[in-house]
Amino acid sequence: MLARSDDPALLLIAPTGGGKTLAGFLPTLVDLATQDHDGMHTLYISPLKALAADIKRNLRTPVDEMNLNIRIEDRTGDTTQTQKRRQRADPPHILLTTPESLALLTSYDDAHRTFKGLKRVVIDEIHALADSKRGDQLFLALARLQTLCPDLKRVGLSATVEDPDAIAHLLARHPDPCEILLADPGPAPDIQMLTTDDPPPWSGNGAKYSIPAVLDQIKQHKTTLIFHNTRAQAEIFFHNLWLANDQSLPIGIHHGSLDRVQRERVEAAMVRGDLRAIVCTGSLDLGIDWGDVDLVIQIGAPKNVKRLVQRIGRANHRYNAPSKALLVPANRFEVVECIAALEAAKEGELDGDPRGPGPRDVLCQHILIAACAGPFDADALFTEMTSAGAYSTLSRADFDACLDFCATGGYALRAYDKWKRLQQRPDGMWQLRDPRSTRAIRMNLGTIQDTDTLKVRLKRSRGGKPLGEIEEAFAATLTPGDTFLIGGQIVRYESLREMTVEVTKRADKKPKIATFSGTKFSTSTKLSQRILRMFQQETWPELPQHTADWLALQRKVSRLPEPGRLLVETFPHDDRAHTVIYGFAGRNAMQTLGLLLTNRMEDAGLNPLGFLATDYATMIWGLDAVRDPAALFDLETLRDGLDTWLAGNAVMKRTFRASATIAGLIERNSPSARKSGRQATFSSDILYDTLHKYDPNHVMMQITREEAMKGLIDFGRIEDMIRRIDGRIDLIENTQITPLAAPLFLEVGRVPVKGLAEEKLLAEEAARLMATAGLTS
Amino acid sequence: MNGCNITLAGAQLTALGSGALWWDAHNLLCVSDLHLGKSERILRRGGAALPPYETRDTLSRLERDLEATGARIVVCLGDSFDDLAAAQSLSETERLWITRLQAGRRWIWIEGNHDPGPIDLGGSHLAELPLPPLIFRHIAQTGKSGEISGHYHPKAQISMRGRSLSRPAFLLDSDRLIMPAYGTYTGGLRSSDEALTRIMRSDATAILTGRTPHQIPMPR
C-alpha cells in the first residue's frame, strides 16, 4: 500500500477479513505522523453508517498507540446539527462518512473550505456501491471533490469481485488509469449442500423441511448466520425455527424492516457473542465485524454466485482459516441451482450482469446539488461529470436535456414562462432562482428508495412498542383480524391510526397471511447458463438421487432444456391448454415475457387466461393450445408489444416514482411536513399518466423506460435469450404434465390476464358489502 | 351516462363515475376542487416543475361531462383555482377554453379556502348557493341538511380477495354529500380519517368513482 501511495487511483481487492481497511489508511497515518497537516487530510466513505462508527473505533487504537495527534470523526445522518456545522468550519484530519452525507457536504457554498488540503479518499466496500445509484452519486461527488482538490488520491477497497476492471473504471478519474492490487485470496471456502433425511419439496421457498437439520447445525457451531433472500422468508423461517427450538437456544432475527432499536439490540448481542444464530437477509451482507461466526447457512438458492461468495466470507472472519458454509435448497429445482452455484464458486467463476452507463436521474439530482453550492458553468460541470467512469460516455445532448429538466421542467407542449427552477445569469452561469429551494433539495437528497412503509406498533392506550415496518401496499390488503408475522411474532391487525398500523400479539401457531412482498432476486445469466449445461450431462452423480431421478424422467417423457435452444412444452390440464416456456432468463424477464406472450396470444385468438413465472420458466394457460411458438417469439413484434403494454403498467409507475424522486420532480420530504393525512399530496401515478398522455417523450419518461428495461422489466435478458436461441425452438406436445413443469403448479404468484376482471370483482364485492350492512343502493 | 342514483333531502341526484354530480331536475352539473394552476403555484413557491398539463386535463374531462349531460347550470364548488395568482396566470388558451365552456350556461364559482375572492373570468361568484331543497358550499357545516360540499378530497378504500384499491369517492348520508376532488393534481383523504368520520353519520355510504361508480358502506 505504502509503495503505491502516490497512485492517482488504486483499487485493493482482498477477501473479507484481510485487514484491508487498515491498509487503506496506512499512507494517511504515515503522512500525518511525519508532518503536520491543517484541515482535512483523508475522507473515508462506507456504504453503512455503522461501518463508519466501527472504523472510527478500530482506527483509534493504532493512532493512540503511536501517540499521534490525529482528530478522527464520523459524520452520518445520526450526527448532531451542531457537530455537523462545526465539522464544516473546522474539519477533522480524518472524516468518516457515507455517500449521502458526502453529497450533502458538497452542496454547501463553503465546500471548498471544508475540503481544503484534502489529500486522500478511501472508499470501503466499494463493490457494494459499484452496482447501485448510491455509487453513481458517490463517484459524481468524487468528481466534484477532485475539482476542489486536484491532487486528491483515490483508494478503493473491495471484496472479491468477478470484474475488478469494471470497478477500477468507476473509481478512476476518467481517463486516468486505476491500478488494481490483488491480495492473496486465502484458503478456498468449504461450501456444501445441506443433506437432509427428507428431500426438499417440489415447490415453495420456505425450506421448512430443513428446520431439524439446521437446528442441529446451530447446536454444533458457535455462531451461525442464516441468510435468506427475502425478508418474508426470513420471518417465516425464524418463526418455524423458534417453534422447533426445544432447547431455547438464543436465536435472533435481523432484517431491514425491523425497528432500529430491535436491530441494534440483536447486533449488540451478536458482538457480545450471546447469540447462537441469527436469521437474516442482505441487511447483514456488508463487512461489519460480527465476531466469531463459524458457519454461514444460505437458505434458498443463492441466485448469484458473487453474493454467495461474499456472504460466505462472513464466516471465520480470520484471514487464514477457510470459511464454512452450507446451502439449503428450498425446493427440488433449487437443488440443481445450488449444485451449479457450488461448482461455479469452486471454479472461481463469479457472475453479475454488467451495468450500463450511469442513470440520468442521478445526474439530474447532481445538477441540483451543484446549484445548491452556488452558481455553476454548464461546460465545466459537464467536463467534471464525464470524468466519472459511469458517465464517461455521457453525451452533451443528454446532459443538456437533464440541465433543461432541472431548470424549466423541460416540457414540450407548454413551458413555464414566468417561473424556473434554475436560471442563467447574464454572465452565463446557472443558479437557483429561489434560494429557498436549497432546503427542499437537500432534504430530498439521496438515491435510496424506501418503499412507502407504515410503522407497526402494539396497540396500547399510549403508543405501544414499535415492532418494525411493513409496506404500505401490504398494509392496504389487510382487514382487521388478519394475522401476520413481524419480528418473529404473530400479530393481529387492529387498525390504522395516523399512518401507524396497530396490532395485538397473538399466540396462534400459523399466521393467516404469511408474506409481505420484498425484492425477489433473479438468477444471474451465468448461473442459468451453467444449469442448462448441467442438464446436458448423461448422468448426475453430483446430485442427490431424488433430483437426478426427476431430471432423468423429464428426459424420458419430454426433453431437458438446452443452451442455445428454447424448449416449449404444451399439455392439457384441468380443461385448459398449458404452455411452458423454459427461457431461463431470470424471474423478472420471465414475468415480462409472460405479459408480452399473453398479449400476443390474445391477439392471435388463443384466449390466454393467466400465467406464472419463475426464474427458469413461464407457464401460460388458456383455452387454446399454442401450435406455432416461433411466431410468438419475433423480437420486433415483442418489442412493439412492450411499448404498448408498458404504458399503463404498474412496474413502469413504480419505476417512474423512484426515478422522479431521485431527479427532484417528486419531493418525498417537504419543509412543511405532511398535513392532515394525504390530502396535500397526490400520487405520482397521476404525474406518470399526465406525462404519458401529453408529453410521452419527456426526459423523465425516457429515464423511466431505460430504468425499467434494465430493472424490473429486464427486457435486455429477453432480447439476449431470443438472440441466443436464434429461432431454434423445440415444441414438445405432451398429453400430460411433464416432470419439469409439475412444480410450477405449486408455485404462488399466478397473474390473471386482466381487462375488465378488476371491475367485475369490485362490483361483486360492493354488492356483498352493501347487502351485509343491510343497505340497498 | 354511467352514474349512481342517490337521493338527498328529496332531490334525485346522480353521482357520476368521473367525480361530477348531476342534478337532472335543474340540468345542473356540479364539480368540486378543480385546483386549476396547481403546478404553476408549486413551482412559484420554490418547488418542483411538475408537468404543466393538469389544467388542460381537468378542463377536457369537464368538457366531456358537459357534452354528455348537456348541463345548463354549472356549479364549481370551490378551490377551483389553486390560488388567486394561479387563476390570473392561466394561459390564454386555457382562459378561452373556460369561456367557451361557459357559453350558453349559467356558471357559478363558489369560493373556497384556496380561492377566496373574485376571479376575472365570467360567471357569478358566490360564497354559497342555496337551491332548495339543497345548498352548495365549499366546506361542510355541522347541523345542516341537504348540503353539498367539497374541500376534503375524500377517497375510499376497498379490499377484495387479497387485492385492494382506493379511489376518490362521494360520501353520502341522510344530511349531506361530500364530493370528491375533480382536479387532475389532487390527492385524497381517506374516509376513515377522523375529519370525515366526525362529520358523516354512522349510516354513511361511499360511492367510489371509476368506470362504473360503486356504492359501499363508508369505510371508517
Number of helices of chain A: 28
Q: What is the averaged pLDDT score of chain B? A: 92
Structural class of chain B: alpha/beta
CATH class of the domain at 9-182 in chain A: Alpha Beta
Percentage of residues in helical conformation of chain A: 25-40%
> What value does the Rg of chain A take, in angstroms?
27 Å
- Give the amount of beta strand of chain A, in percent: 15-25%
Query: What best-fitting shape of chain A do the alpha-carbon axes yield?
Result: globular
Within the largest sheet of chain A, what's the order of strands? 3-4-2-5-6-1-7
The total domain count of chain B is 1
> How would you spell out the order of helices and strands of chain B?
EEEEHHEHHEEEEEEEEEHEE
Number of helices of chain B: 5
**CATH fold title of chain B:** Purple Acid Phosphatase, chain A, domain 2
- Calculate the mean pLDDT score of chain A and round it: 84
> What are the low-pLDDT stretches of chain B, counting only 5+ consecutive residues below 50?
none
Explain this structure.
- The complex is a heterodimer of chains A (777) and B (220).
- In chain A, strand 18 and strand 19 form a beta hairpin.
- Among the domains of chain A are: 9-182, 3-Layer(aba) Sandwich (Rossmann fold), CATH 3.40.50.300; 190-346, P-loop containing nucleotide triphosphate hydrolases (Rossmann fold, 3-Layer(aba) Sandwich); 453-505, no CATH class.
- Chain A is of the alpha/beta class and 777 residues long.
- Chain A starts with 8 loop residues before the first strand and ends in a 5-residue tail after the last helix.
- In chain A, helix 14 (360-373) packs across helix 16, helix 14 runs parallel beside helix 24 and helix 21 crosses helix 23 (635-647).
- A 7-stranded parallel beta sheet of chain A has the order 3-4-2-5-6-1-7, sandwiched between helices. Chain A has a 6-stranded parallel beta sheet with strand order 8-13-12-9-11-10, sandwiched between helices. In chain A, strands 25-21-22-24-23-26 form a 6-stranded mixed beta sheet, with helices on one face.
- Chain A is built from 28 helices and 26 strands.
- The longest helix of chain A is centred in the N-terminal third of the chain and has 17 residues, at 49-65.
- The model of chain B has no long low-confidence stretch (mean pLDDT 92).
- Chain B has one domain: Purple Acid Phosphatase, chain A, domain 2.
- In chain B, strand 15 (205-208) and strand 16 (214-217) form a beta hairpin.
- Chain B has 220 residues and is α/β, with parallel strands linked by helices.
- Chain B has helices at 38-44, 54-69, 84-88, 92-102, 194-199, and strands at residues 3-8, 11-16, 21-23, 28-31, 73-76, 106-110, 124-126, 128-131, 134-137, 147-149, 154-160, 163-172, 176-178, 189-190, 205-208, 214-217.
- In chain B, helix 2 (54-69) runs parallel beside helix 4 (92-102).
- The two termini of chain B are 29 Å apart.
- Chain B is built from 5 helices and 16 strands.
- In chain B, strands 8, 9, 10, 11, 12, 13, 14, 15 and 16 form a 9-stranded mixed beta sheet that branches.
- The chains are: A alpha/beta (777), B alpha/beta (220).
- At the A-B interface, helix 25 and helix 28 of A face helix 1, helix 2, strand 11, strand 12 and strand 14 of B.
